Amino acid sequence: VADAAADRPMRRRLAIVALAAGVLAGRVTIDLRGQVQPRDAVKPATSGGTAVIRGRVITAASRDPIRNARVVASAEREAPPVMTDADGQFTIAGLPPGEYRVAAGKAGFAQASWGARGPQAPGRTIALPPGKAVEDVVIALPRGAAISGTILDTAGEPVGGASVMVERVGPTESAAAPARVGLTDDRGEYRIGSLAEGRVRVSIFSKADSSVMLPNGGVITTGPGSVGDRIYYPGGAK
After folding, report:
1. What CA dihedral angle connects 224, 230, 232 and 235, to 10 degrees?
2. 106-156 pLDDT tens trace
3. Tell me: the pLDDT tens digits for 93-112?
């Protein structure tokens, strides 16, 4: 178990890591105040049969607006992402009526969803009637944590281009948060940031030089062995 907020290199392969959200801050909780949709939040939209979602992205700690945050509304499919302006405001227009979840993220912050009860939780859905607009959708982003380390082979040499997987564990594991994937550089070092606070499991594939996991969850293999054979600290498959 290690503290990802500590500013020191982790030279060994890791198993379970406790992340502290932010370097200077202690525990940071996503503030969901003001995110409950009021009854009068649905207003006429400016377009015909499509609907609109408008809101703001702010910091969880200070409530300041976040500029250039990436906001995505998803139902059966994801709508094209939009970016927040200087005041943290966003508008997602041209949405077919339906049930949507809205999430936001930015480098240095942990991703959060509107109405989520915890880090990486899926959040609540927003009902969009035809030709209407839902206003005041506020998403608060906590500061993100980061984890770094080095991948070595059995001879103690650094492994470049190895896929490193970070998965959430513990009480938040039921939220089915997607795994984060990073690659080592030519020195065998990696750094994965914008993580929510909590406990994570870090692993690599046993054939780190022949198995590469893609960001979309796919795996490319060029050698023998099962992609399920993963290595955790201190170096054994468990």
Report:
1. -20
2. 999 999 999 988 766 778 999 998 888 999 999 999 999 999 999 887 788
3. 999 999 999 999 999 999 99
Return d(Cα 21, Cα 39) in angstroms, integer: 34
Residue with tokens 């649905």, as numbered in its chain? 42
- The residue among 183, 176, 175, 187 whose CA lies nearest residue 215 is 183
Residue that is written with structure tokens 């809205």 in the block: 102
Phi, psi torsion values for 237, nearest 5 degrees: -75, 120
Copy the structure tokens of residue 233.
């600290």
Strands in 154-229 per DSSP E = 163-169, 180-183, 189-195, 198-205, 211-213, 219-221
- Rounded Cα distance between 54 and 56, Å, is 7
CA 103 → CA 37, 117, 210, distances in Å? 15, 13, 34
Residue 197 DSSP class: S
Q: What is the DSSP letter of 224?
A: S
Q: Is 78 strand, coil or helix?
A: strand
Structure-token pair, residue 143: 């500061």
Q: What is the pTM of this model?
A: 0.63
Token output for 129: 């009637």
Three-state DSSP at 5 gives coil
Contact between 98 and 132 under an 8 Å Cβ cutoff? The reply is: no
